[in-house]
Amino acid sequence: MYFPYFITYMSIGLVISIVVFIWALKNGQFRDQQRARFLPLEDDLDQTAAGTSRVSRYEMYGLFLLALAGLGASAAVLIYSLFYAP
Fold this sequence. Notes:
Helix content is 63%, strand content 0%. It is mostly helical.
C-alpha cells in the first residue's frame, strides 16, 4: 500500500543528496583535507569579518529553500498517509 510513496520519497531524497554531493565536489568542499585538523588551533581574532558576496547569499537562500522543500515533502507524505491512505 505505502510502498510506491515510500520508494518515490526515498528516490527523491537520494537524487537530491547526489546532486548536493556533486555540487560540493565541484566547489572544492573536499580539497585540502590535511588542513582541517589544524583549524581549531588557528587564532581568528585578528581577522576582520568579510561581507557576504551575492553568490554566497544566493547559495544560502537556495539551501534554505531546499530545506523547506524537504520539510514540505515530508509533511505532505505524512498528511497523505494519515488522512487519505486506507
